[in-house]
C-alpha cells in the first residue's frame, strides 16, 4: 500500500483516504490553481498507527521520498540553514472535526535557520516572528504545553514595550520572546524544543495521529455519529507567508453567503498576518471587499478562482488563502457549511444557474434541516437565564406559566393563559393538559417516553428527562439547581431543539415555513420571503421524484385537515383509543365492569353513535383519500383509574362508612385486569377476541359512518386495521365477524362500502408468518414501535430513560432503534415480511405507521424495501415527503 500522496496525485473524491482537506488540495492543484506544493499522509497510515501503536514501517521512507521530491522542486532543503524550506503540518479527517490538532506552521525553523530565513526574506522581524509562532504552536499542540503560558509571555512583551498589537514588536523583542518560549517548553514539556527539522516534522505528524483520540474529538464524533475508526490524514504543505509585510496577508472567503445563500463577496482579510491570527481574532480583520483597494491584482484573481471553484464543485465553497508579497496562494477549500435556510436557497439558486438539476438539488438539503426550519425559535439575541437541560424530545420554543397538573393546564388555558405543563412524567391522563399546554417539560423519561411520543405527535414542544429539576407536583413547584424554586404560575421557557430550560419569558419568532404549509403564506406572493419560495420549489421537486406516498397518523378531523394541508395522502393510522378518553371514559368503564350481556350491550350501544360521529368527521376531512382505522389496541386497565389512588379512595370511604359500591367494583376490576407486563398482555386483537362486541361495535361504527358519507355524496375510503396480530387465525376470526357486520350495513344502507381489512405487523411472529397472514389481510402496516420493542426485547416506555445513554456511550448503537429503524434486525424482518406478504398476495399494499415513518433515515430504508407509503405525525409530513423524494433521486 501507498501511504503518501503528492497533491498532484489525489482528487476530491478520495476523502476517505486523503481526508477532506487533502482531497480538496489535490483537486485544486489539478485544476491549476495556485496551491503551495505538498503531500498528504493517508488515513490508512493513521489507522495502522492507531491499531498497533506504531507507524507503519514504510511510512518514514515514503515521507522521506516525498520530502526529497518537494525539496527538489522548491530548490531548498527542509530547515536548510542559509535558506530553509518550511512546511505546515495540518490534520484533515474525512469530516472536519473540532477538537483535533489543527495546524503547526513554520516547521523547519531552528536557531540556525531562523537567521537564514531573515537573510533570504530581507526581514529579520518576520523571521523571528515566524520562529516564535512555531515554538508556540508546536509547544501547545505537539508537546501539550498550556497555551496560556505563551499568550501571557506575548502579552507581557507587548506591555513591556507599551504597544497594543503584536506587529509593533520588533525583531529584538521577538528574539527575546523566542528565548522565553523555549524556556517555557523546557520547563513544561521537560525537553528542549527540537532543533532538528525532520524531528519537528515527524513529531507533528504523530501528534496529528494522536489527536484523533483526544477527548474532545471523541465526544464530537459521538455527537455527530461519525465512526471512530476512520482515522485522520495529515497534510504537509510548503509554507507561504502572509506575515511578510503590508503586501502580504491572509483571509477566508465564501463563494456565497452561508447565511442567506446570496452570491457576493463574503469573507475577511487580515493584512500582514498568518492564518491562525484570523481564527484567533487577535487583530481586527477587514471585510474581504476591501482587499480590492489593498491589492487589486490578487483580489481579481481570487474572484476568478472563486468562480472556478463554484462552477467546479457546483456548490458553496469556503476558502482559506494567503497573499505572499502580492502572490495569491490557496491553502484550503471545501464545500462550505451553511444554515438550514441557506441550504434550501442555495439549492434552488444553483438550479436556476443551471449548475445542478432537481435530483441533485434534493441531495443538497435534508429532512432534518427542513424540520429545523419548521419550529418557532427563541430569538437568538435574547438574554436568558438557563435553569436546566433535558432531552430535546420534540423541537420548538415554548413559553408559558408553569403548571403542575393537567387540570390546571386546561383551566388556565381556557382563561387565556399560556402554560407549560411540568410533570415528573406524563401518562394518558395528562392528555388534556398536554393539548392545552404550549409545551411539556418532564424530569423523567427519554425520547420515547409518553410525553415525548405524544408531544411529537402533536407537534408540541417537549423537553423530557431534565433530571436536575426536582418536580414536586403535590406542592405545585419545582426546585432548580442552586435552590431556586419555580412556583405554579411562574413563567418558564423551554427549547425542544436544544433541551434547554429557561426562567422567565424568552421572546419567540414564528416559522415562515409553517405559515406556508398552513396556507397562511403563499409562494409567489409579494410578501413571501425567499426561504418560503425555496422550500416551495424543493417540495415540488421531491413530490415529482418520490415513489413512496405519505400518510398521516391522525385521530381527529382537526389533525386530519392539518395533515392534508401539509400534503398527506391519507391517514395511515387512526388510533381509536384516543376516542375513548375524556367524557367517554365512563362508558368504557361501564363496558369493562359489565356483569351481564345486557349491561355490556347497552354500553356498546351508547358508544356506537359517538364512534360513528368520530369517523364521519374524519372521512369528511380526508374525503377521497384512504383512512386506516385501527381497532382498539391498549390494555383496558389504561381506561381505569390508577390502582393506588382507587385503593385509597375505597379505604377512605370504608373508614368513613360512606357508600363506595361503585369504586369497590371498579377496584375489583382493576385487580382482575392487572398484568405484570401489560404491553405483552390483553391488548390489540386479543381484546377483540375476548371482549364480546367491542370490535363489532367499532366495525359497525366505521361501516355506518362510511355509508353516511356516501349518502352525503362523499368519497370515504376506510381501511380497517387489526393490531397486534401474531397468527393468521386471530385475523380470520375477527375478519369473519367484520365481514358479516359490513355486509349487514351494506344491505341496510344499500351502499357498496368496499372496506379493506388488513393488519398491523408489529410482532416478530407476524413478520415471520407474513406469508400466511397475507391470506387474510388486504394490507400490512408495519408497527415498528412494537416491532422494535419485541424484536429487541426493549420496553419502549422505559429503556431510553434507563440504559440507552450507556448503550449510546459504549457505541452499541449510534442512535436509539426507536428513533431510526434498526436495518439489520428489525429492518430485515420488515423486508422479509414485505416480500413474503407479496409472494402470497401480489400487489399487497404495504405501509409503516410506527414513529419511524417520519424519521429521515428510516424513510430511505422503507423506500428501498419497496413499501407503498409511510405514515407519520402531521408535522413530520413535509419531512417525510422531502426524504421520500431524496430517496428516489
Ligand atoms: C407501532 O407499534 O408501531 C404502532 C404504530 O402502534 P402503537 O405505537 O400505537 O403501539
Ligand atoms: Mg403498536
From TrEMBL:
Record's protein name: Pyruvate, phosphate dikinase
Family: Belongs to the PEP-utilizing enzyme family.
Entry's EC annotation: 2.7.9.1
Top-level enzyme category: transferase
NCBIfam families listed in its UniProt record: PRK05878.1, pyru_phos_dikin
Catalytic activity: pyruvate + phosphate + ATP = phosphoenolpyruvate + AMP + diphosphate + H(+)
Annotated Pyruvate phosphate dikinase AMP/ATP-binding domain residues: 59-284, 291-341
Pfam families: PEP-utilizers, PEP-utilizers_C, PPDK_N
Key words, A-Z: ATP-binding, Kinase, Magnesium, Metal-binding, Nucleotide-binding, Pyruvate, Transferase
Organism: Streptomyces chiangmaiensis
Taxonomic classification: Bacteria, Bacillati, Actinomycetota, Actinomycetes, Kitasatosporales
Superkingdom: Bacteria
Cofactor: Mg(2+)
Domain PEP-utilising enzyme mobile: 417-499
Domain PEP-utilising enzyme C-terminal, first and last residues per copy: 533-885
Gene Ontology MF annotations: pyruvate, phosphate dikinase activity
InterPro entries documented for this protein: ATP_grasp_subdomain_1 (IPR013815), PEP-util_enz_mobile_dom (IPR008279), PEP_util_AS (IPR018274), PEP_util_C (IPR000121), Phosphohistidine_dom_sf (IPR036637), PPDK_AMP/ATP-bd (IPR002192), Pyruvate_phosphate_dikinase (IPR010121), Pyrv/PenolPyrv_kinase-like_dom (IPR015813)
